[in-house]
Amino acid sequence: MNRNLKLRALVLLAAAALAVPTFAKPTATTITIGKSAKIGKADLQAGEYKLMIDGDKATVEKGKNVVAESAGRWEDRDSKAASNTLLIGEDGRVKEVRFAGKSKVFVFNE
């Protein structure tokens, strides 16, 4: 009977492991900033950057150097974005990143 109990526990653990959602892999894309913008505490000049989002943390790289980091959150929108787009506020701060063909956007906390 003890062996039967162990087998049931093992099956239950396996089922629980399969039920846990897998972690999403980080999102990485190239962004082009047309004019000066601010992400986190960093001022970014116009140019091309690599944006990586892992969970609720965004990292911006220029070449191999990290030039900005900021926290944020994922939100759903009603429609899908036509292209990769940065929404920049009047103060020059990047508010959100929209991804082509996706209704999820990354919204910066600042």
The biggest beta sheet is recorded as:
7 strands, antiparallel
| Helix amount | 10-25%
Order of helices and strands: HEEEEEEEEE
Low-pLDDT runs of 5+ residues are 18-22
Mean pLDDT: 85
- What's the helix count? 1
Query: Looking at the structure, what is the overall shape?
Result: globular
Main β-sheet, spatial strand arrangement: 1-4-5-6-9-8-7
List the helices and strands and how they pair.
Layout: H1 2-19, E1 27-33, E2 37-39, E3 42-44, E4 47-54, E5 57-62, E6 65-76, E7 85-88, E8 94-98, E9 104-108
Antiparallel strand pairs: 1-4, 2-3, 4-5, 5-6, 6-9, 7-8, 8-9
What is the structure about, briefly put?
The chain has one helix spanning 2-19; strands at 27-33, 37-39, 42-44, 47-54, 57-62, 65-76, 85-88, 94-98, 104-108. It is of the alpha+beta class and 110 residues long.
Structure, described:
The chain is an alpha+beta fold and 110 residues long. It has 1 helix and 9 strands; from the N terminus they run αβββββββββ. A 7-stranded antiparallel β-sheet has the order 1-4-5-6-9-8-7, with no helix packed on it. The radius of gyration is 20 Å and the shape is globular. The chain starts with a helix and ends with a strand.
